[in-house]
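Attaching the record inline, Q. Sequence:
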Amino acid sequence: MSQQFFSSSHSSFDSSLLVRDAHGRYLPASIDQILEAARQVIDQKMQRGMAFTSPAKVKEYLAAKLGGFEHEVFAVLFLDSQHRLIEYAEMFRGTIDRASVHPREVLKETLRCNAAAVIFSHNHPSGDPKPSGADKVLTKRLKDALALVDVRTLDHIIVAGDTTTSFAERDLL
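Structure, as predicted:
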């Protein structure tokens, strides 16, 4: 169903964005509708073949994709040898504080995409972007598995709302 969003001059956040329903009436947009609209916009900005030219661009993209979820989502950016986007995939969905990630499935999808490099990402609904011990262990397992087939792991970015943490920037890769 196609929805159209319009700004309003009202001061409260709840009524600052309106959605036109199937009957042509304008109703206040829900938080979920706003987040979905933001995800659609970021998808239009970063389509297949677009290059991730800076860590800031990657973080902005992933914060828009994962920032609003109330449960953990583990996603992978599959990239070609020039770090251009082949595909973004939300591979695993979890609970409020964990998601089970299966390295075999990540490897299969990486090979299916014929990716030369990957960037892992997941969100922390708690709002704390600090990598856990489990996050570090998982990243090493994934990186080691992909290295066996000559796929480079460029980063693992944790998204907590609008805050991000990069494993590469913290020398955790």
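The CA atoms of residues 101 and 138 lie 8 Å apart. The beta strands are 5-7, 17-20, 26-28, 73-79, 85-93, 117-123, 152-160, 163-166.

More tomorrow.
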